[in-house]
Amino acid sequence: MQRKRPRRTRERILELSLRLFNDLGEPNVTTSAIADEMNISPGNLYYHFRNKDDIVNALFEQFEREIAPLLEGPLHSETHFEDAWLFLHLLFETIWRYRFVYRDLNDLLSRNRRLELRFRAIVDRKTAAAQALCRSLAASGALAGVEREIDSLATNMVVVATYWLSFEYIRHARRFSDAQYQNAAMARGAFQVLSLLAPWLNDEGRTLFARLSREYVKD
Fold first, then answer.
1. pTM (global) more than 0.85
2. I need a surface site. Which of 47, 64, 84, 201 has the fewest CB within 10 A?
């Protein structure tokens, strides 16, 4: 049986940093703390990353690679209401894996110009995906609305998706590392974005939405 390749130090640094950033908040984690947690010298860490922003940028590149194919989906395929729910759930799962970016967003963007530009590009791609999703639903007759209304609806969907974790953190800061809470928080976020579509849905879509309401609206 082929032996599993040992993880390289760089990979271990990124894995640990992501966990610490997610659990404690990126501003509260230093490179010294990362090195101590890994039981390596600061010099060993700096051999792989010059500073903490280098680690943040590398993690954001991972996030970009994970979210890119998901955001491409609505641009190239017909979307039904059930597809919208799955898309949003997968989106929130990806966001949750890199939740430190969203929780500490203003702080990160104010001091990291590279991250500011790249996150803006992610927001633009989210908006394009939301617009494509809404237009596809409108084309199938599942959603009513003219182009201007759809653009506004898509923007609102992106705003809620982008700031939902901040809202959750304000409400449940002490439960943010609880696995059971995490699953519920992701489902609530996906449902909240989906709820923006509810007033525009046809009868079948509203029936499906009502079923989701009974299942996922929980504290």
1. yes
2. 47
